[in-house]
Amino acid sequence: MLRTGTYTRRGFGAILAAGLLASGLAGCGNSDTGGSGGEAGSDKIVLGFSQVGAESGWRTANTTSVKEAATEAGIELKFDDAQQKQENQIKAIRNFIQQKVDVIAFSPVVESGWDTVLKEAKDADIPVILTDRAVDSADKTLYKTFIGSDFVKEGRLSGEWLVEEKKAATGPVNIVELQGTTGSAPANDRKKGFAEAIATNPNLKVVASQSGDFTRAGGKQVMEQFLKANPKIDVLFAHNDDMGLGALEAITAAGKVPGKDITIITIDAVKDGMQALADGKFNFIAECSPLLGPQLMDLVKKVHAGESVPERVETEETTFTPEQAKAALPTRKY
Ligand code: GYE
């Protein structure tokens, strides 16, 4: 379940190993946080986790990773699915505060609008860990740490591959972009990284860019509109595999061959995306690992014990071509 290769270059490996091996850390009981939402008499750490939703294969794998890792670490998990709505996440966090959980972790659906509820958690003395997606709060004391991917880098790697792929082009290369959830960190950052990379070749132009909300249905629907409005589409850049998979249906229905008539780049590298890449329907994927559970549980134990944690824990990732996807698929865990 655990890929040691995904961990940060900043010495997190050691922290992780220690955390995974330790069945309990000194000070892990609830007494030092002034109460717990756990069963009476239990000294288990209680973690309230607010998940974005179930919008993609990535998210499903992430939820499984968090649940399995909590069980393995002996942490009591209170899990809430916000169905892609910020108001639901704010409600869930307030519930966790009321229940006096020991630690709160959440994956913020969008970047803005968290200061008030984070302040409430801070006033209640409950440490908060951001997982997967960042917030834009200026006050960094509102949370202990942020663990997740470098989304700008994922966009940049996607753009750099395209620049190389199209370096012989003598005329315009028309790109359409399927953005993730509007206002979310991965949508903002992947767009930015990609735009910066393709700016080096003036032939590469994004002719349409719209949100497909990270879902297959969204990707299909928006791609249909793109195909109707743009007679010449050379490239699709989708902010995740699921939107790319949805777009495949629209492209095929329009009588075009995905991966040939239209070059397709996506992000995530979940199993279905990797299969499409191995089949030559996608051309390139930048990986984004959803297996954050073990790292998260280690951080939960540390912040609960009052130990210091790095401000930012970055997951390490790679990229895949069709040949690399074929080689990786048999052992792919998600
Ligand atoms: O890429 C997408 C999911 O926040 C990294 O959210 C995550 C993104 C992931 O819906 O598939």
Automatic annotation (TrEMBL):
Annotated region described as Disordered, given as residue ranges: 310-334
Cell compartment(s), UniProt: Cell envelope
GO cellular component: cell envelope
Cited PROSITE patterns: PROKAR_LIPOPROTEIN
Domain Periplasmic binding protein: 49-307
Family matches, as CDD domains: PBP1_galactofuranose_YtfQ-like (cd06309)
Family stated for the protein in its record: Belongs to the bacterial solute-binding protein 2 family.
Protein name in the entry: Monosaccharide ABC transporter substrate-binding protein, CUT2 family
Keywords of the record: Signal
Segment forming the signal sequence: 1-28
Record organism: Micromonospora yangpuensis
KW Signal (keyword) present: yes
GO MF: carbohydrate binding
